[in-house]
Amino acid sequence: MHHLYSIRFYIIGIGITILTCFFSFTDEKNSYQKTSTLFAQYTKEFETSLKKLDQTAEAFKLDKIKIDSVQKAVKNARLTYKKIEFYLDFHYHDYVNSHINGAPLLQIEKSGALPDVVPPEGLQVLDELVYTENPTEEKNLVSSVAKKLLNHYKLLENGIQQKNINPEEEIVAMRMQLIRIFTLGVSGFDTPGSLNALEEARISLQSMHDFFAEFSPQHHQKEHKKILTDFKNAISFLDENNDFNSFDRYEFLTQHVEPIYEELKIFQSKKTPDFLVNSSAWNPESTSIFSSEFLNPYFFTALKEKEDSPQLKTLGEKLFYDKNLSNNKKISCASCHNPNLAFTDGKAKSESNVQGKTVLRNSPSLLNSVYADRYFYDLRAFTLEQQAEHVIFNSDEFNTAYSSILEKLETDKTYKNGFKEIFNTEEISRQQFSKALTSYVASLTSWNSTFDKYIRNRNQAPDPSIKRGFNLFMGKAACATCHFSPTFAGLVPPFYSDSESEILGVLEDPKSNNIKLDPDEGRIESLVHNEKAWIYEKSFKTTSVRNAEVTAPYFHNGAYKTLEEVIDFYNKGGGAGQGLEVTNQTLAPDELNLTEQEKNDLIAFIKSLTDTSSFNKKS
């Protein structure tokens, strides 16, 4: 679903240059060094394109030229950026995301007790601005964004100039770029105005091909040659299939992106760069974007991999199903997260411990829930451990405290022995309890659906309806611009370290003739006070589409009973698309104009993401 924004901020800024980079390639006992003239050439091209863009945008502001000239300048700047994106976004992700090519969404800066709302910057913002319905109304903003972009790149260049480049490390960057091309590129996320996604993907692949051609390893020469051929084939595929809506993303993924992603691994550094370990959940050792090893669950938890064990998971499982831990001894974690319902409860809003009363929101599935940096619909918890705390202390849920839980565990011989065996301590601590529960919840993963198997078995012909549905999901229907592959949730690629929330304008009752917005205010009322900003009014976490076939009802209020109702809601452009006033709706209000066949195909794809093997059924 396309991101929109409404901004009237005037922005200013400061300059740029270029660099020459030194490559040193080491393969076993042999080393190869050379200066990359290509990198110097491409960075010079980007600098030149930004200067031209600045001049063009200024002329547009002064009514000296028309919008088509600005669109051409933006397109050229974006294409030259795509030649070096694999390097820049890998090494300077936070800076690039904030100033060079981040999503065109209003952001907050936490400078005090309350946040400041700041406008987005960079190439995506310009791509959307120059393709708005009335771009002349935004001419001052276009000029200021272009100028600030140029100046921020100069500041970035100062850091790049001092950096030595290790080609083995850049292979890791290229693999991450393949993820970016597929998840953010050909989905249209990165080009919200022009939808020039396919040409940009082609340019990026061509650039990586050319860089990889510069490497001269003494070993694996056969593999080196094959990868170059595969790059060329992927580029040819994009040349021959250049219509955004009809582009076959399934074939592009299985026959081009996935093979290159796997093959490049043989050339990458054996040691993952420290900065990547600390900033990304992506696992460079993975060989498929749709494998269970693609993401590292321990990136998101206080529990570390070396601390985890099957014994700890079993202990956590026992805690998960134990009603005795709650204050009234009538509810457990499984009361709202039933394994037979993909760890949901099938209700619009979960029942509380008070008879006749429900909790505030719908109970989401715990499958793959570990893959998030924030938890609950309003993102109020920052870790899985903290998520459990909210349930424990909530008066409508467990209504208890750690002291009470630990006392019960200490007086239970089975628990006492179990904790002692694992942690080798006499007393059970709050941290040990949290680690056990986290171990079990983190094990509830789902990566073996019909669709996952199709992707991993690249030559297996998929069901035609599933394939069409996937292509719609990734393209025309714009679902993948919020539900990112491969989690199909709001965990943002390619670093997979941040969870998004969105404003959709969810209705209180979609079947009512008198439609109105659901009254839940969402993230703005999360009690995370330094995020209390108007841009989060009615903003809710983007949950996973995986297993959606068996996790009805939908959305935070559970008001949508079927997948058909959900798709109809999106097809109409959310609340704003149905004529309601929705502050800062991040879902495009435009109708998708999906046909009945397309809706059915989307549902077929969503159902193919069901993984019943992941349901830990328990009586």
Structural account:
The chain is built from 21 helices and six strands. The strands form three sheets. The chain has a two-stranded antiparallel ribbon with strand order 1-2. A hairpin with a 2-residue loop joins strand 1 and strand 2 (30-36). It has 619 residues and is mostly helical. It is globular, with a radius of gyration of 25 Å. The model is unreliable at 1-35 (pLDDT under 50). Helix 6 packs antiparallel against helix 7.
Low-confidence stretches: 1-35
Q: Nearest-angstrom radius of gyration? A: 25 Å
Question: Mean pLDDT, as a whole number?
Answer: 91
**Proportion of residues in helical segments:** 40-55%
- Using the alpha-carbon principal axes, give the shape: globular
Could you say which structural class the secondary elements and strand pairing correspond to?
mainly alpha
Largest sheet: 2 strands, antiparallel
> What string gives the helices and strands in order?
EEHHHEEHHHHHHHHHHHHHHHEEHHH
Distance between the termini: 39 Å
Counting DSSP H or I runs of 4 or more residues, the number of helices is 21
Q: Let me know the number of strands.
A: 6
The strand line-up of the biggest sheet is 1-2
Beta-strand content bin = under 5%
